[in-house]
Every structure is written in C-alpha cells, then in structure tokens.
Specification:
The protein is α+β, with helices and mostly antiparallel strands. It has a single domain, classed as RelE-like (YaeB-like fold, 2-Layer Sandwich), CATH 3.30.2310.20. It contains 2 helices and 5 strands, in the order E-H-H-E-E-E-E. A 5-stranded mixed β-sheet has the order 1-5-4-3-2.
Length: 92
C-alpha cells in the first residue's frame, strides 16, 4: 500500500536550502516512506517524537544528519519540517 504524501510549503522551502545531493537523498527517502511507512520490517529509521502534543502524534525520519518531521493521519503523511538534526525539534 502506498500512502499519499503532502508537504507543507515551509518544508519545501527548507529543502531548497540544502545542497543538491542532500536534496536527492531526502526525496528518495520520502518516496520510500510513502511505500514502507507501516510495514513491519521497514528499513526506514522512523520513530515517534517524544514530547509532541497529544492530539497530534509526530514522527521523524532520519536521513543522515537531517530529519524529516511528519504527522500520519487518515492514510496521508503530512511533512511539516525538513531540517538539520540540531534544528529539527525547535518550536514543535
């Protein structure tokens, strides 16, 4: 099963700040996320974000030193942030 992926305009802007090779790695991981997110033996490094608000459960996908922070609801993956790991969780 493949999930729909929606990306917040801010996350698209953040992605544009990275070098081209990093952008390609992140795009590749997002495509894999849409296909493998809920599979039991997924090779993706996805974990729940601790301390996120109870009404919204956030997850993070690790891509080297970068993090993709997203929410999963109604078979849609909503990507909120794409940033370096030192900045990933500020303001969530």
């Amino acid at each position: 099963m493949s999930y729909k992926v929606r990306i917040h305009p801010k996350a698209i802007k953040e992605l544009g700040w990275f070098p081209d090779e990093i952008q390609e790695k992140i795009k590749k991981k997002i495509r894999a996320l849409s296909k493998e997110f809920m599979k039991p033996k997924s090779r993706l490094d996805v974990k729940k974000v601790k301390g996120s608000r109870k009404e919204i459960q956030l997850y993070r996908l690790r891509v080297g030193d970068y993090r993709i922070v997203f929410e999963f609801a109604d078979d849609v993956i909503w990507i909120a942030r794409i940033s370096h790991r030192r900045d990933s969780y500020r303001g969530l």
